[in-house]
Design brief:
The chain is α+β, with helices and mostly antiparallel strands. The protein contains six helices and ten strands. It comes from Tautonia sociabilis.
């Protein structure tokens, strides 16, 4: 059985899923990372998550407005134009979001001048700013404290990724990340941008698809009792 690993940026909280840890240099980015064996089955992507994500493909991307970590407004209608958009859904404090982030940063390194990248985090602007500072995220992170964007895209957990094609259609929604998912994202970005497909170190990702921690949605308001 091949080893499944998470790549976690050093300086982040090391929440152990089990297994040993070792350090190595990340090629091409000049960072130190921690590699840990992942044994937590709770975060495995389920068939239902895969099915619901596939059903989103081809539908219009939801419209939204938000501010990024610097307070700059982002309007989705203006954001989507002649370039594809990749949205990375982040849960503050989730180790899965932390471990997945370096892969999305590598995708940005390869395609960021031909596609737009945004994170979407479950917090206000200060939370978004702290995430960018702590992780060195090279793309804007949008504040979504009420989970409005998360709900609009039908996202249940962190580490989901949405790719929006030029013109505003959901090209694909992935319910987590893995070696295969990262290769698929890179191939689709290459096709939409006309770039050669980039190598983003996908072989370092888990072999099987893993999602992140569930977002904490407010329970529905109780219905008024009949009069």
């Amino acid at each position: 059985m091949s080893t499944r690993i998470h790549v976690i940026a050093i300086g982040a909280l090391a929440v152990a899923f089990g297994g040993g840890l070792e350090e190595r240099a990340e090629a091409g980015r000049g960072q130190r990372v921690v590699v840990g064996v992942l044994t937590d089955e709770e975060h495995r992507v389920t068939p239902e998550m895969e099915r619901e994500s596939r059903e989103k493909a081809g539908s219009p991307a939801p419209a939204f407005r938000a501010v990024d970590q610097d307070g700059e407004p982002v309007d989705s209608e203006a954001m989507v134009g002649d370039r594809p958009v990749l949205l990375v859904f982040i849960k503050d404090g989730c180790p899965c979001s932390t471990s997945a982030e370096p892969f999305y940063a590598r995708l940005h390194d390869s395609y960021g001048d031909a596609a737009r990248f945004f994170g979407v985090i479950d917090g206000d602007r200060s939370v978004a700013a702290r995430w960018v500072s702590d992780h060195g995220t090279p793309y804007p992170v949008l504040a979504d404290p009420e989970l409005e964007i998360v709900r609009a895209f039908g996202v249940s957990n962190s580490a989901y990724v949405a790719l929006i094609s030029p013109g505003g259609t959901i090209e694909a929604l992935w319910p987590g990340y893995s070696e295969g998912i990262l290769r698929d994202i890179s191939a689709r970005l290459a096709g939409l941008t006309g770039r050669p497909e980039a190598e983003v170190g996908a072989s370092e990702a888990p072999e099987l698809p893993y999602s992140g921690c569930p977002f904490e949605f407010d329970p529905p308001e109780p219905a008024d009792p009949p009069s």
